[in-house]
Design brief:
alpha/beta, Rossmann fold, UDP-galactose 4-epimerase, domain 1, 2 domains, seven-stranded parallel β-sheet, 13 strands, about 40% helix, membrane
Length: about 300
């Protein structure tokens, strides 16, 4: 009879999951991945070893979620439809992101799990009124994806009150790193720039390139998930970012340096809605003991040179 705790991990075969699972195995957990494998890598999962089980199912089916979660003491909920796909198909997005959220949270409450870690998003803030963005700031989600992420946090509060569910919602900022699909929302910007730079062409930036993002490496994201699974404090949303906003113009220069090209960005003079993002990281440090370890220049350079 194994004494290892089992972590139930929805979407665990995806980009972030494949960085988290090895860390869980290092900490002597067993992992039960629950994933419809739409974006999952079956071969990569098979190589993770005997302590990883894959259940090829969909979070939209509450009975399947409930049955598969039996015997698990902790839950990570990462299964979701991406932000840009949510606008192309709001129906599927609401189905997977809203109904899926509820199915996972209700099952976790029924099974009395010790901790549920929810992969939320900085997109719940919408266009921020100030920087850095703090967890108690006003939330103005814009797309079906962002709306579902915010609703998920509210649902966790409901099951906390109703069933004493212990949870942490991690509001991920702009995640990047090895293994990410090239079609991801802002990864496509990185890939577009890199492809042009490698061809000796300058990256083209709309406006003055003042739009910014808080780029956080997937290795640090994975660390935050494991910390949230085991933290003594709970029942709060927590920003996971670097606290540094990197403008699109700065990103272009970082990538040019990484490729080692002799080009300069070109600016396309047009009106753009300038949005900036940077996380207030105080709570992450206080609640999780989390601090990022990979700065954007180092992370982006390793990513480009590793391709």
């Amino acid at each position: 009879m194994s004494t290892k705790e089992t972590v139930f991990f929805t979407g665990g075969a995806g980009f972030i999951g494949m960085h988290v699972v090895p860390m869980l195995l290092e900490k002597d957990y067993k992992v039960r991945i629950f994933d419809n494998m739409f974006r999952g890598d079956r071969d990569a999962v098979a190589q993770l070893g005997d302590d990883v089980e894959l259940i090829d199912q969909d979070v939209r089916y509450g009975g399947a979620v409930h049955a598969a979660m039996k015997g698990c003491s902790k839950v990570i909920h990462a299964a979701a439809v991406s932000i840009n796909k949510s606008q192309a198909d709001p129906y599927e997005s609401m189905d997977i992101n809203m109904i899926g959220n509820h199915n996972v949270f209700a099952a976790a409450a029924d099974h009395g799990v010790d901790r549920l870690v929810y992969c939320s998003s900085a997109s719940v803030y919408g266009d921020p009124e100030r920087l850095p963005m703090h967890e108690d700031d006003k939330l103005l989600p814009i797309t079906p994806y962002c709306i579902a992420k915010r609703a998920g946090e509210d649902l966790l509060g409901y099951y906390q009150r109703r069933a004493d569910l212990s949870w942490i919602a991690l509001r991920f900022f702009n995640v990047y790193g090895p293994g990410q699909k090239t079609t991801a929302y802002y990864t496509s910007v990185i890939n577009h720039f890199v492809n042009r730079i490698k061809n000796g062409e300058p990256p083209v930036i709309d406006g003055k390139g003042e739009q910014s993002m808080d780029f956080i490496h997937v290795h640090d994201i994975a660390r935050s998930v494991v910390l949230a699974l085991e933290s003594e404090q709970a029942n709060v949303p927590v920003n996971i970012g670097t606290g540094i906003d990197t403008s699109i113009a700065d990103l272009a220069h970082i990538l040019i340096d990484a490729v080692g090209a002799d080009v300069e960005p070109q600016f396309n003079p047009r009106d753009v809605l300038v949005s900036r993002r940077a996380a207030d990281t105080t709570r992450a440090k206080e609640v999780l003991g989390f601090e990022p370890t990979i700065d954007v220049r180092t992370g982006m350079t390793e990513l480009i040179r590793g391709q």
